[in-house]
Amino acid sequence: MRVLVTGAAGRIGSAVARQLRAAGGFDVLATDRVRHGRVDFPLITANLLDRDAVDPLLDGVDAVVHLANHPAFKPPDAQMIFNENVCMNEHVFQAAADRGVGRIVFASSIQAIASQPAVGRLDDDDHPPYLPLDGEVPARARNPYALSKQVSEVMLEYITRRFGVAAAAIRFPYVCGEDQWQLDESTLAQAEGRGRYQIDLAFTFLLLSDAATLVEAALRAPLSGYRVYHTPSS
To answer: Of 70, 74, 149, 172, whose CB is crowded by the most CB atoms within 10 A?
Structure first.
């Protein structure tokens, strides 16, 4: 399977590209806008905001793991975060559909479900509607980054329905390395003290190695149609 991994110089992207290259059965084409020191594999530099740069990357590709987006909301750049994320996603999704790519795995975000609001404080509406969470929780963005993910999930569902591509949107929580992981009584007490106990417990963290394994599983599984996945904590 020939797989294009976008955002392959990022934390998740580099881990995914490295795992797929080592796993066997994948011919990995890695791309990113810039090269970082964590990249120890061949990388094509390309700006996904440039449609003409995106289209050739999809030639002869069987599946796309699309991880390249601005990673979070950083005020006051609301327009840039939203517009550029949605633009990159549309370019990749549509180019994949036009070239008959069979599968898209998209890095959405847990923030599509609930997130820190761009302005103001958390209120009752910011808490998850139920626990444990699953892929059926409706999106309800609270900042421009989260909105870009929500809109892109809708876009990907359209691509799946219109062009018959199998697609999975994974609502990643915060992804950390094994050396960063800890969730102890002190952490929980701080979360409860901030009035965010439900949110912190629901969203917690995912180990980087588990995130890469999840993407590999999404590529290998016999999926059809459009799926949204919520990832439990490691």
So the answer is: 149
Pairing of strands 27-32, 44-45: parallel
Domain covering 2-230, topology: Rossmann fold (3.40.50)
Predicted confidence at residue 35, as pLDDT, reads 82
Q: Are 35 and 76 in contact (CB under 8 A)?
A: no
Question: What is the rounded CA–CA span in Å between residue 17 and residue 1?
Answer: 13
Q: Which single residue is written with the structure tokens 């290259």?
A: 21
Contact 139, 113 (CB under 8 A): yes
CB 45 within 8 A of CB 6: no
DSSP letter for each residue of 99-152 = TT--EEEEEEEGGGTS---SSS---GGGS-SSSS--TTSPP---SHHHHHHHHH
How many CB atoms are closer than 10 A to CB 161? 12
Q: In which region does residue 64 sit, left (phi positive, over 0), alpha (psi from -120 to 50) or beta (all else)?
A: beta
For 6, 94, 167, 182, 195, the CA distances from 89, given in Å and listed in that order, are 10, 8, 13, 33, 34
Pair 96, 104: CB distance under 8 Å: yes
Q: What is the mean pLDDT of each run of 10 residues along the chain (234 residues)?
A: 97 96 96 86 96 96 97 82 97 97 96 66 61 82 92 98 97 79 52 46 77 97 93 65
Predicted TM-score of the model (pTM): 0.86
Domain residue ranges of the chain, discontinuous segments joined by +:
2-230
Phi (first) and psi of residue 105, to 5 degrees: -115, 120
